[in-house]
Amino acid sequence: MYAITIPEPGGPEALVWDEVPDPVPGEGEVLVEVVASAVNRADLMQRQGFYDPPPGASRYPGLECAGRVVETGPGVSGWAVGDAVCALLAGGGYAEKVVVPAGQLLPVPAGLDLKRAAALPEVVCTVWSNVFMVSHLRPGETLLVHGGSSGIGTMAIQLAKAVGAKVAVTAGTKEKLDFCAELGADILINYREQDFVEEIERATDGAGADVILDNMGAKYLDRNVRALAVNGRLAIIGLQGGTKGELNIGALLAKRGAVTATSLRARPLGEKAAIVAAVREHVWPLIDSGHVRPVVDRELPMSEAAEAHRVLEESGHIGKVLLIAP
User: Smallest Cα–Cα separation from 250: which of 226, 219, 216?
Assistant: First the structure.
């Protein structure tokens, strides 16, 4: 088969479309013929040499895919050759075939194009696990999403609105904020021109955000704590603004707040399977009914993964960038 390899870390040009051995499914695994994968910021970090796959995972980038089951390993039940699936991966999505633990498979939602299903697993599992399973967003509460026009952001807006929450977003252009509003965002904050702490206080009559989904890390840590409501929960899922910040514990105590930081990739298989099962139970009906949808900015041939990485680095996109297998 062919896959995107990374012979040496570097810029987008470090991604090489090359012939590699076919993977073989083991106990509890299935082999999926990939139709499409999607690009995540973690892939950019891996390409740069900063985010290696966990032990035993594929060395090729790609944390989600959609395709068809072509082989099942020993001990697999509930899935059969020919099934249309999408999958949460620890790696290997930028390839023509990938091995997936059966517990990380999801059926393609009704009425959704197989290619577009590749835009779902990583973002849905990230949002559901952080905003709902960990931070327990409830109806009537306010969620602040940084990077509202990203793949994560566009999904977080939709899921939060689906449960009856109020949604605030930050983004850097009017076009991106307008798109967030179309998805249901209530409070629109241009981070280039406005202070999100002041805007959240104004929009909530001083109460603050009950849950904050943060992709920036250190750069926003202090302001995120100031923007929290009493009993608020800050969920950190990205480090685009650095890894080391100063936490005002006194301010956090005054808010009776909580700070969590999670990632999906290196979690044990059982934890990933539990998240996927929860997503299938709670989110898949919303997608089946059309109330929630993946947002796709563009599709590119998988062999042009370097261009897809450039698109993400320039941050001009809205939603997900897909890689289409040959």
Answer: 226
Q: How far are the Cα atoms of 132, 135, 294 from residue 63, in angstroms, in the given order?
A: 21, 23, 16
Q: d(Cα 4, Cα 20) in Å, to the nearest integer?
A: 9
Q: Is the separation of the CB atoms in 191 and 210 below 8 Å?
A: no
H-type alpha helices, the chain: 41-47, 121-127, 151-162, 174-183, 196-203, 221-227, 249-255, 269-282, 284-288, 305-314
- Reported pTM: 0.96
Q: How many residues does the chain have?
A: 326
d(CA 184, CA 139): 15
Three-point CA angle 277, 41, 83, nearest 5°: 40
Q: How confident is the model over 253-308, as pLDDT tens digits? A: 999 999 999 999 999 999 999 999 999 999 999 999 999 999 999 999 999 999 99
246: tokens are 């100063």
At 269, give phi and psi (nearest 5°).
-55, -40
